[in-house]
Amino acid sequence: MTEGSTTTGAARSAQARIALSALLLGAIVIGFSGILVKLSETGPLATAFYRVALSLPIFLLWMGVARPLPARSVPAKAGKPTSGDRWLLILCGVLFALDLGVWHLSLQLTSVANATLLGNLAPIWVTLGVRLLFGERVRPLFVVGLALAIAGCAIVMGRSLSASPDNLAGDALAVLTALFYGGYQLTVSRLRASVSTPKILAWSGAVSALILLPVAALTGETLLAASAFGWGVLLAMALISQAGGQGLITYAFAHLPASLSSVTLLIQPVAAAFFAWLVLGEALGPWQGLGGAVVLLGIWLARRGSLAPGTRR
Hints:
single chain
């Protein structure tokens, strides 16, 4: 191995560590979303609309002042989507609108714990997708890590989970959310090979907003917040959940395998439980601590069992 290749390998390793840190931070930030949805004074679909619409100026400004960042492919192509990429960008927006809209509806029909846990089963769909659609191998150690991480999430949410028939519709919507979110993650992973973070989030946000607003209006939802506090919640959704959380997550997807990224996002239920304790006063006990430790162990095993970015069968 030459000195140049060693240097390149070290740089990629450092980049992967930075991306993993960004992914973890983004997932923790996103964990606050459920509480903000509960506090919102507008309807669930309207809240989702404001989340993406109010964040659009941030991503448009980012696109205007930032140099395109190289992703996994040729640096010169980064931030310059082809016609095929544009269709993927539109698909990304549709899937994100479905993800947000259906999840926000599920929060109205089931508990935050149920919606958070079931809505975060996306790694199952992502793992199947990268195997069946893209031919990426899935190592046994990765599967063990995935199973442990999901089990850890269930332990964290165990006290708050409810098996009530009254929650059945909301639980079903949360499972559907996981399917849409998994499709969104796979699409973002493909796009990050040639498209910059702000461009993905600007395009997908615009498409999502165009879908969510008319649907919210047609369903008769409350479209306007009734107080300054309500508008503050909507602005927080845009700044914290979308610009902060999704910005970090989308950046990380350029440098990590989609399957590993998706499993790492399972830290979200742990963060959600912590924020529920911090803001809503929901109790945390030894089981929640154990569950969080199991999630972290699962993520660590999944990372060790994952392939290097871009590796194919």
